[in-house]
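Please fill in the sequence for the structure shown.

STRUCTURE ENCODING:
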């Protein structure tokens, strides 16, 4: 099913749920980079959205970070195979920075039998300029599952999704990788220490996703078996809001992106659920209180993956047609909720 048909499904679902009715239009559709398909090992969890409308992502099997525009043309390639020397380098996080820069966290990795990879847990920051040239590299503190987001100043926030039985915290770093301050996230929705699951499996980790909008970092959880939450942190480290996400019954989060200050999520049907079987679903959430704003369903066999918000709409990777599309929404009424 093409995304044009998904648009129809969205229109019907919004009308039936009492939300504002919308008219959706494909503004542009161009061939997507061929590297995104086949055995590239594309990682949809690592999508960075630049203010210049570029999209940066990681192709794990190719050991390559690529940046491309809405015209589908790749402008930058970064070889990641041996960032840390002869041993294999494992990219753990990436994020676009100011002036077209790309920030990358990588750690040494060793592959064992049966396809298991062991990562050192000690990431190094690599900061590249707009052309892929290395600006600086610096080892950082130990981090188990690091995610990063970069502010306009070049400073960046690192959130480590450590064990559930530990108090959550983030670290604000300068653009050169120097720690500026630690941010205590105790008592936020990210704090899972009192959960039954944390007591039963204390070593289990959150699986977060981080995104930028304006000069705020949005930390979402809910992927895998994690409780769905959203936490907003400002560039000075202040926690602006933190709440549970009101997911529809039988769903968990798959990938999340920002649409202005709304959270746009691709949903996944939970195991053994019947209501959402054989569908692909997307939803929008209010980030201040976690409220569900809209949900849409696609009953086709091909998933279109959201990439980045643009001034004209959300960009998607259409796997069926191998295209990069931008979809716009025109609201023709008002929400009844």
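FILLED IN BY: designer on duty
SEQUENCE:
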């Amino acid at each position: 099913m093409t995304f044009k048909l998904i648009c129809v499904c969205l229109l019907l679902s919004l009308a039936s749920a009492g939300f504002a009715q919308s008219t959706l239009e494909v503004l542009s559709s161009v061939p997507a980079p061929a590297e995104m398909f086949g055995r590239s090992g594309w990682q949809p969890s690592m999508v960075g959205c630049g203010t210049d409308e570029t999209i940066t992502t990681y192709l794990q099997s190719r050991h390559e970070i690529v940046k491309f525009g809405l015209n589908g043309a790749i402008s930058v390639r970064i070889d990641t195979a041996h960032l840390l020397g002869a041993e294999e380098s494992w990219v753990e996080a990436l994020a676009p920075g100011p002036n077209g820069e790309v920030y990358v966290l990588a750690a040494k990795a060793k592959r064992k039998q049966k396809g298991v990879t062991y990562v050192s847990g000690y990431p190094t920051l690599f900061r590249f300029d707009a052309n892929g040239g290395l600006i600086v590299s610096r080892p950082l503190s130990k981090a188990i599952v690091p995610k990063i987001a970069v502010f306009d100043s070049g400073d960046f926030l690192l959130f480590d999704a450590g064990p559930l039985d530990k108090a959550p915290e983030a670290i604000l770093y300068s653009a050169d990788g120097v720690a500026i301050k630690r941010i205590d996230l105790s008592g936020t929705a990210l704090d899972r220490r009192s959960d039954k699951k944390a007591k039963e499996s204390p070593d289990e980790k959150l699986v977060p996703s981080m995104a930028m909008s304006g000069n705020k970092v949005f930390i979402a959880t809910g992927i895998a078996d994690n409780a769905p939450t959203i936490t907003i942190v400002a560039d000075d480290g202040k926690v602006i809001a933190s709440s549970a996400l009101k997911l529809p019954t039988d769903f968990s989060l798959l990938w999340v992106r920002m649409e202005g200050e709304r959270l746009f999520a691709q949903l996944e049907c939970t195991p053994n659920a019947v209501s959402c079987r054989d569908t692909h679903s997307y939803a929008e959430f209010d980030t201040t209180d976690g409220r569900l704003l809209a949900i849409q369903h696609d009953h086709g066999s091909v998933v279109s993956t959201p990439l980045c918000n643009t001034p004209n709409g959300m960009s998607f990777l259409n796997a069926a047609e191998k295209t990069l599309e931008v979809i716009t929404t025109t609201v023709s009424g008002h929400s009844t909720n």
